Amino acid sequence: MAAIHPSQPFHRHLLAFAAVSALGGMAMPALAQNADSSEDSAQQLEEVTVTATAEEQLRQAVGVSTITQEDIERRPPANDLSELIRTMPGVNLSGASSTGAFGNQRQIDLRGMGPENTLILIDGKPVQSRNGSMMRRTGERNTRGDSNWVPASAVERIEVLRGPAAARYGSGAAGGVVNIITKRPTDTLSGEVTAYYRTPQSDNEGDSRRLGFNLAGPLADNLSFRLYGNVAKTERDDPTINEGQGTQAAPAAGREGVRNRDLNALLRWDLTPAQVLELEAGISRQGNLYTGERFVGGSLTAIQQEMVDSAAETNRTLRRTASVTHRGNWGSLGSSRLIFQYEDNNRRYLNEGAAGSGEGNFTNPLTWRESELKNYFVNGELYTPLRLGGLDHMLTTGVEFRQEKINDPGSQNVNPPAGFTTGGTGKAEGDTWALYLEDNIAVTDALMLTPGVRLDHHDNFGSNWSPSLNATYQLSNEWSVNAGAARAFKAPNIYQSNPEYWYTTMGNGYPIGISGPCYIQGNPDLKPETSINKEIGVAWNNHQGWDASLAFFDNDYKNKIVADMPNGMPVDYNTFRYFQWFNAGKAKVRGLEGSLNVPILGPSGNTLKLFNNLTVMDQNKNKDTGQPLSIIPKFTLNSTLDWRINEQFSTQLTATLYGKQDPRTLGSRGQDLTAEGRGSYALFGLRANWNITKNLRAGFGVENLGDKRLYRTANAEGAGAATYNEPGRAYYLTLTGSF
Question: Which domains occur in the chain, in start order?
């Protein structure tokens, strides 16, 4: 990989940022020295410290949602947190592309930008495990994503940040950010154990069960700890669940099962009243339960059928992390946070055949491969209160470093053709440095401006600027307006950009009119994907339980990285065809988000209240091909009728209405498709919670009351929008004991 030298332009940018940061750091002491009196200085400091940081202010935007610990307890997910996150405005679950392959492995998709543009954080630290799974020609990965590494019982809250405010987080946050915040150490010894069991009404759907614990408390003066663990298992669907659906020789696979094992420990040391050090280490394991999932359609091979019959694991990921976090208060200079994290993801998976030898099928005999992805993350932020130009400021100065290293011999699906060479190592790496500034400015009592700029430098793809401007204006005590605009980007992933990555496809892969295999190679000359994200919204709160919001968002997307053949024909070498991942044209994502919460009984609706949120997708398509970026509903409406009967009992009636989903009309080979869309449908649920005693609570409920079941018709683009299974009616029971 190329080294960074002082002569490179990035260092001139670095010096400019350093100068601005230094001026910001020096401004506060200088202003204090020029104060007319000590009393005036104290008054200035008091005014400044009430100004929130830019990050805290941006959380007040209409594009931000928070899931609390109580929300999780009252509506517990069976296993994956995405089951609950999907009920937030602007959130859907979708496959990594619109082709339908691996369609049941849906991941969090914010505002239709796709799962690859959703950044998952745990306590502010990025989760990158899905990057260790090979990205295939049409953009899919055989992965469940990154939302299932923290058990539900260990979560304090989840923040979902959408729109321009997400630009501060750099590559991969163009759609938005999901920050999963875990429970912290406590001043007294406390603990809890949670058991959960979910059983479906249908025998051909898998049940779920999990058992988790949390333990926290002091160890000595200024020393405390937090420990959580989790064991969970969701059974797979019956392999025949989709029989009779579609025209494939063998039915499309149902939902795979998953096994989870998690253990995490955190040690907190209060060095001084103003200095805190946290040491954290964790290990998690996820393994699948195979139900016949395959990349290319057709009948199962004998080996695949054998793995189906035994419900075997065909891939598993072992994730290990270690981190150090320091938080400090530096008086007039403000406060700081410094994070270092090491993340190691080891993925073991069955090798699959290449073109002409059972593409997408397990090789015979079975061969296991391993990929190892290592990530190093360093982030430091300084929050400096200032009084400049007669205005209160909170300046955030940040620096970040990310390093990604992968060793995946399986990324060479085939030896390259004659005339091409390769190192044969399957190794790749990339470093990213970033600097960013954000200033939270109280222009008036009613107007808050948050300008920001972030500079990322990737040693393979150069520098990218991400400027942003967000504003909040308080029209009155009840009405406020939010607006924002930002440039966001996503660097090519480590497979797309790696010249050691070789993939060959035939069968469903080669273009119409062309025989012979097609070879796809990683491209180190790719440009990052970029988007200009705009948002404007209005919010109303009468402080008596009524509140509503409405936001319009518009994203212009360009340089999307693809290897789909309709975007460009491969080079003809007579006996084979060759092409690389490349930057395609432009895309548009546009829609509305809204909410309306209505008190019905009790002060501010404390007894009975109706909560609603709505997402409408107006556009979500590649401008050049007219094809959808991902298959998501035209609209999604989530409603919850919350009845708190008394201090012991509460119930919820939930409803979600999904609008029509349009499929691709152009296949990956350039052929016209006649696949049908998926019509509107609704899901209802009923939940109840009982606080039996101070230290014992129970929850039970019925999901999908109407038993609305949807079936998957194929595992490829011929499925249209029917690329996933919607499970039917199910019953759950959960019990938590604490002390």
Answer: 9-738 (2.40.170.20)
